[in-house]
UniProtKB/TrEMBL annotation:
Pfam families: Guanylate_cyc. This is Adenylate cyclase. PANTHER family: ADENYLATE CYCLASE, TERMINAL-DIFFERENTIATION SPECIFIC, ADENYLATE CYCLASE, TERMINAL-DIFFERENTIATION SPECIFIC-RELATED. Keywords: Lyase, Membrane, Transmembrane, Transmembrane helix. SMART domains: CYCc.
Amino acid sequence: MDPAGLPPLQGESGRRRANDARRAISAVRLSTVAVLAALILPAAGLVFLLRPDYAAVHWTSPSLHFVFFLVVGFTAASLALVTGEAARLRGDARVFLLSLAFLAISGFMALHAAGTQHVLTDESLPGFTVAISVGLLVAAPFALASALVDLRPWLGPAVMRARPWLRAGVVGALVLWGAWSVGNWPPLDAITGEGPSGDALEIAAGLAAVAYVGAAARLWWVHRERPGFLVLSVVVCYILLAEALWGVAAAGERKFHPSWWVWHAFIVAGFLLVFLAARREWRDERFRPLYLPSTREQRREVSVLVGDLAGFTSFAEHRDAAEVAAMLRAYYEVATPLIARRFHGEVEKFAGDGIFATFNRRGDQPDHARRAVGSASALQTEVARIRNARPDWPGLRVGVNSGPVVVSEMGGSGYVVYAAVGDTVNVAARLQAAAPVGGVLVGERTRALIGDAAPLVPTPRLRVKGKADEVDAYLLQPTTSGTSPGPARRRQI
């Protein structure tokens, strides 16, 4: 038995596996030490500063307080923005809830800075004074939810469906608190310190601190085998926020006392640590280590659009490369906004002269088949318009098919794609190859989903490459009005 407690392994591969195991164990031990240090050292510093020896020590600097917390507030707001965008792009509920926690704390921190006495106002406004504490209380449920959202399969999709309302709720709370603070209306006018006063608020602060610790413990447990710097930074940030709440309770009345500066520094350190960790990650997927398993691989019914230029190879063979690039640019410049903005699909990739797009990747487009067919029809209309001016340019063939796929994370740090994989994609590609130039071939499942929304003509059963059985397909007919079937509109009630 080796020192790591592993059975002996023979050969070169066995030695490599043993070394990898030792490195993993060492990483876990080091990360555990880092988390424990983050838990113990700041709290020990605060306890030290609460001693009577420091009772008469104060350092008052309103201008520094204003600038410092305004800058840190904007730093935290930037984290809220980038985590929110990552969550939107990948449909990840954990990262979205993390963004709400950052948004709440950063917003209330900015209010706290704006209310610094003798900077923007000479009047003491208690609502601004306690804003950081309020932000910590508001953010705690979101932090805990971010760590627990993977416990039930339905929680993540439910959170993402409620995304606009949750974000609006946080922004609304910020606006309401700011307005109430400016008016200095009851009960805010009775507040004297920066911490919670009264049994109910002290209990709320205690529960919020427990929520942060619970979130840190759960996140650590989920990623305990390979925590990584980003995960560790969020774990430590949650612990520091919990300790900040404890600091509020212990030193909230000691304004500009060393202990007062220390519990403020807990919050600052937590945000800066996450900011630095995110900076170290690969730019396009900074928060990928936090993604839920359901984000990394999920089953969906989607509609797939595959387009390809007929005769592109021979066209490129006899033309200057700059002209070929200009032709592709002209087509893609109309295709991308048409698919992404007008029909809200996702252009997954360009492959030479081909385009691949999906609809309903995040499960929020029940009319995905209509969107895909409408997009294909509109795309052919735009390509025909371009070819009227350049008839020598190649035409487009399009195939559309609907059905189940697995959207799976592929790649690693430096390049990651979330590819739709399955027979649905293969059939869409085969329909494209069988479509006439300027035409759109639609699969059987797509036809069933759109019903009578578009004029379709059955084609003879197709035998396509790679399929043992013949495939039912339907040719989309041009509409007399020149319009295309768009997304289904909600019925007015």
